[in-house]
């Protein structure tokens, strides 16, 4: 098959969250720069760069409507398809070809793998993904190096990050799953979780100038008070953003918390605001 993407534009999780509009059902991966250029030209013509608070595509969608937005995008795209892109066009790196799954031998067909939250079967029979649960996305540098070595030894050598601030070692052949797992158990942190709800957070006011709340501190406090080993809760996702900018993506959580300043009896106070429920 051809590798490619569906493309959405004009969405945002900031102060006025909006769902993105689908602008392409499918584009091949080598056309993606044309798509980016068409969206940029669309914004150059119809967006508002004079006001930084309104300099977002979603305001264009809001002003002209989704249908017109897609039509205008399509005409920019058609123009670019006719003329081609100008200047030096960077080549897209084919990362997958550097980590060939086909070189992995899957054997030991009768071996039973205990699947669970951290051992996930892949579409290709006999290959598994191992998920490493990281607390707030943190991992000591030495452990990260070891994770890379473990991936190199027992899989295709690729480690990917996830939106939930975890790591994935992909394409682990069945016969290597237990070996990789016991090597990971030798890290200085527990990466196999304890069935608590997942807490995801932005950096917060500790290091972010825009932050109103110490979102990582709140995440720690919440995690400590959540029950361990509760299978029913383990799929719950809590997301925290230190301010309305929503870097912690709190609007798409089961429970979302946002740092907010409020004036009470003439005094400014900071308080987390419960914002959403995904389910
Ligand atoms: S949500 Fe706010 S506090 Fe958190 S990283 Fe983004 S800008 Fe900073």
TrEMBL record:
One of its GO terms (molecular function) is heme binding. The keyword Ubl conjugation does not apply. Pfam families: NIR_SIR, NIR_SIR_ferr. The keyword GTP-binding does not apply. Keywords: 4Fe-4S, Heme, Iron, Iron-sulfur, Metal-binding, Oxidoreductase. Residues 4-75 form the Nitrite/sulphite reductase 4Fe-4S domain. InterPro entries: NIR_SIR_4Fe-4S (IPR051329), NiRdtase/SiRdtase_haem-b_fer (IPR005117), Nit/Sulf_reduc_fer-like_dom_sf (IPR036136), NO2/SO3_Rdtase_4Fe4S_dom (IPR006067), NO2/SO3_Rdtase_4Fe4S_sf (IPR045854), NO2/SO3_Rdtase_FeS/sirohaem_BS (IPR006066). Residues 123-185 form the Nitrite/Sulfite reductase ferredoxin-like domain. PANTHER family: BLR3264 PROTEIN (PTHR32439:SF9), FERREDOXIN--NITRITE REDUCTASE, CHLOROPLASTIC (PTHR32439). This is Nitrite/sulphite reductase 4Fe-4S domain-containing protein.
């Amino acid at each position: 098959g051809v590798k490619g993407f569906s493309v959405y534009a004009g969405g945002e999780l900031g102060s006025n969250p909006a769902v993105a509009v689908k602008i392409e059902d499918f584009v091949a991966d080598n056309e993606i720069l044309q798509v980016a250029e068409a969206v940029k030209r669309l914004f150059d013509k119809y967006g508002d760069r004079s006001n930084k608070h309104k300099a977002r595509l979603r305001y264009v969608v809001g002003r002209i409507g989704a249908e017109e937005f897609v039509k205008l995008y399509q005409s920019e795209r058609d123009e670019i398809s006719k003329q081609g892109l100008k200047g030096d066009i960077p080549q897209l790196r084919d990362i997958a070809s550097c980590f060939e799954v086909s070189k992995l031998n899957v054997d030991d067909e009768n071996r039973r793998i205990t699947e669970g939250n951290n051992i996930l079967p892949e579409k290709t029979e006999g290959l598994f993904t191992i998920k490493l649960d990281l607390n707030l996305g943190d991992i000591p540098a030495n452990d990260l190096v070891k994770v890379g070595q473990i991936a190199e030894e027992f899989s295709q050598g690729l480690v990917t990050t996830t939106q939930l601030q975890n790591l994935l070692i992909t394409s682990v052949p069945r016969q290597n799953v237990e070996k990789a797992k016991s090597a990971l158990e030798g890290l200085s942190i527990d990466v196999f979780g304890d069935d608590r709800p997942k807490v995801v957070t932005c950096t917060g006011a500790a290091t972010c100038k825009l932050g109103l709340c110490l979102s990582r501190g709140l995440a720690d406090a919440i995690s400590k008070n959540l029950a361990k080993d509760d299978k029913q809760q383990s799929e719950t996702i809590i997301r925290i953003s230190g301010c309305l900018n929503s870097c912690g993506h709190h609007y798409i959580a089961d429970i979302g918390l946002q740092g907010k300043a409020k004036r009470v009896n003439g005094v400014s106070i900071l308080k987390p605001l419960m914002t959403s429920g995904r389910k």
